[in-house]
Model the fold of this input.
Amino acid sequence: MADVTVGIVVFPGSNCDHDTEYAVASFPGVKPVMLWHNDHDLKGCDAIMLPGGFSYGDYLRCGSIARFSPIMREVIEFARKGRPVLGICNGFQVLVESGLLEGALIRNTGKKFICRQATIKVVNNTTIFTDAYRKDEVLRVPVAHGEGNYYASPETIENLEAHDQVVFRYVDDEGNATEAANFNGSMGNIAGIVNRQGNVLGLMPHPERASEKSLGSEDGRRLFESLFRHVTGV
Amino acid sequence: MAYKAKIRVTLRPSILDVQGKAAQHALENLGYTTVESVRIGKYMEVNIGENTAEEAGRVCTEICQKLLSNPVMEDFTFELEPLN
Done:
């Protein structure tokens, strides 16, 4: 099997870039490549990941400045060609700011930064990022964000739902998308969405922090597994 | 010639402003019971080196749409002031 290379974009203020690198490198035949935000070169990578953190100190709005980093021109072009792009946490915020995904991520309704294990459900297991999961499977994946409250116009939400673009929802232990389980106030309990073409996924929870048993959960692992399987065509 | 753009960016009315709500509660605690609501936005001053108010306004609208505000969740308004 040819090596898969995964580009991880490093913005000033990214802080999950090495966690993501670590998770990616744990898959045989998959090589992470760090990509500096100021470059214009995706180095021939097969998939791109925008990691979590606080790019540009969250100045102006989360992700708003990173969205105009030089490398984003290539990332947007790559995504428009249908190649896979994954945005985790701050990476999700960058994706909505760039217009690759719809909606916005605003302050959590409880005002607080929330760092905890979250319970999410795989609503759509037919994407290239989730087909190693069962439909409606409940996962434990950590979150750590102050602005993870997914917001979009009612028409946008309706469209996302109609096209199965909601991939993950916050749920209780039984898998019900209750208001109590929706700790950050997201519309429709939305924790992650995919674009219409299905090649760009953004989610607030951190699959890379749930990628092996010693981290308390390995439920995030199959997200990477799904993606790498698709990239290699296996 | 240049213009100073005084830009206000506010959260769309449909969006709950949790910061504003917290400030409102604090004001209530201070005894300002007539304060009915607080919404917090951003104020920016941007100097634009254009020769006419039309051009400066065009640039200002563009930068507000592109970067300074996010149309999904925010509205913006601005005033231009000529600089000498």
